[in-house]
Amino acid sequence: MATGHILIVEDEEEIADLLRDYLSNAGYTASWLENGDAVVPYVKKNTPNLILLDILLPGTDGIEICREIRKFSSIPIIMVTAKVEEIDRIIGLELGADDYVCKPFSPKEVVSRVKAVLRRCLSEPSEKVLRAGPVRLNEDTYQVTVNDNELNLTPSEFAILRALLAHPGRVFSRAHLINRVQGYDFEGYERTIDFHIKNLRKKVSEYLPNHDIIRSVYGVGYKLVPPE
């Protein structure tokens, strides 16, 4: 039976109740907030394991909430949107969301997404340290440092970097990285991988300028090249 505290941020009570029922049946504790203004204070006080965050909310919208949470936390966030065209906003604004679902959705699919994201975040630590030059990733403490400067990575960014660091020089296809990060294949997620890579490069380059350690392999995917 699954465990964990899921925060549902949704202004439609019927949808929130449906999600809460399915998540509870799956073994999760589910809380609900309907007003965006209450989310950040709640997260700071209660620290849920994952947030299902609708974009259109009374008060502060989901885009701004995600941006604010990422300033102090890497809690997994699954964005919920009513319009497919909003996906570009979700993944294009470099907010650090880990996944997205579109309304109308299957509650069973949402539960599957939640399980996939939490599977990697709540797994037992492997007490393993991966290194590539000045880049160091500790799977036990869930920390990444570059030249002894700690990076604030989202769970998806951490999972991508872990896969690349484990096999320097190996080319990973986007589909392979999707399965490493999400735990399932999902049509349309490949461009999200590209945005995660973009954000990861930006964070690493802040402390490792002039060294692009994550290289694109045209038509294939990505590989990690340690700095000399």
Secondary structure layout plus pairing:
Blueprint (H helix, E strand, L loop, with lengths): L4 E5 L3 H13 L3 E5 L5 H8 L3 E5 L7 H8 L7 E5 L5 H6 L6 E4 L4 H15 L7 E4 L2 E4 L4 E4 L2 E3 L3 H12 L5 E2 H9 L7 H16 L8 E4 L3 E4 L4
Parallel strand pairs: 1-2, 1-3, 3-4, 4-5
Antiparallel strand pairs: 6-7, 7-8, 8-9, 10-12, 11-12
Helix pairs in contact: 1-5, 6-7, 6-8
Structural summary, described in words:
The protein is α/β, with parallel strands linked by helices. It has two domains: 117 residues, Rossmann fold (3-Layer(aba) Sandwich); 96 residues, Arc Repressor Mutant, subunit A, CATH 1.10.10. Helix content is 38%, strand content 21%. A five-stranded parallel β-sheet has the order 2-1-3-4-5, covered by helices on one side. Strands 6-7-8-9 form a four-stranded antiparallel β-sheet, covered by helices on one side. It is elongated and about 55 Å long. The termini are far apart. About 2% of the residues have low confidence.
In short:
With 228 residues, the protein is an alpha/beta fold. The protein has eight helices and twelve strands.
Given helix and strand content, the structural type is: alpha/beta
How confident is the prediction overall: mean pLDDT?
83
Major sheet: arrangement of strands: 2-1-3-4-5
State the share of residues found in helices, binned by percent. Answer: 25-40%
- Note poorly predicted spans: 184-188
Characterize the largest beta sheet: strand count, sense, and whether it forms a barrel: 5 strands, parallel
> Can you count the beta strands?
12
What radius of gyration results from the CA coordinates?
18 Å
The top level CATH class name of the largest domain: Alpha Beta
